[in-house]
What does this fold into?
Amino acid sequence: MTGLRDHLARRIALEGPLTIAQYMGDCLGHPKFGYYVTRDPLGAAGDFTTAPEISQMFGELLGLWAADRWQAMGAPDPVHLVELGPGRGTLMADALRAGKGVPGFRKAARVHLVETSPVLRDSQRRALAGVNAAWHGDLSTLPPGPMILIANEFFDALPIRQFVRDAKGWRERLVGLGNGGGLAFVLSPAQAVNPLIPAALAAAPEGAVAEVCPAGLSVAQAIGRRLADTPGAALVVDYGPARSAPGDSLQAVAGHTFADPLADPGGADLTAHVDFQQLAQAALAAGAMPFGLVEQGVFLKALGIGHRAETLKAQADARQRADVDAAFARLTGTGDKQMGALFKVLALQSPVLPPPPGFE
Ligand code: SAH
It folds into this structure.
């Protein structure tokens, strides 16, 4: 038994079955046993890898996107450059380096990192040595003022709740204790009407699973509110459907392979697909203007990844050229092992700003 499994079993015995959000929250963020609290999960030696870890081109192009939005905002100084869930700090380091090419941007940018993991905060500090950055536990402590925000693979890590449709209504899927005392999925009593079910899924057939990410929606709403009254732009890159669709997308990954989400609490990454329709609606309702979705491959090509790859290859040896080609294919390709179509990009902006690059 792991320490976290004992803790969860005690918690369930005391409080009853947990929502999947409570379970995910403990698995990922428990102060002693949480997955993100105890390790750096990224990269080839970790459990999964992400676009900025695959190639510097990703962070560079997002940095240029940010600099372009800064110019569109009238080049405010200061501008808050915010990243949610910055991982190892690689994306931000690449973005700042590329942003130096746009006169005045680097000097105006104040870097803010929203990160809960102490281990990853250390990695970010190393990657951003020499950068005057501020760390935050959530968005509530960000200073007011013009803002450009980036979130790559952040929303998929936020806890979701799941509901299953039966003849009588919606039942919540919960984590309880099975006959042998191990963790097991159980269902709550049915509820005819459930205010958490997204409108698009309200009429789903019996057996359908609806997912909601209350934490993600509240972040989208906070971003939307801020963009409604202060100039700014946000870019969200993640995997998930463009339109709300029923389905169980809770997944565990350890050592680059899928695992049972209940098998090793705190030892595997837990994620769920991002429901971009719900996110965009939450931000729109709060006063921001959404753009997209576009596929990551289409977006990166529109920003000039092809040209950037050629420039890098012109200065490289044969092995490095092959690496650049492989990274280009992985980031933009549409195969199911590639990220180009699997990952989508959503932009949110203050309504006064012209459409962002990559979304025309
Ligand atoms: N953006 C990075 C890392 C993605 S992994 C990359 O692309 O490589 C998810 C990141 O979100 C990690 O940095 C993790 O510690 C952070 N995270 C997860 N839940 C969080 C929360 N509730 N608040 C802030 N950061 C969180």
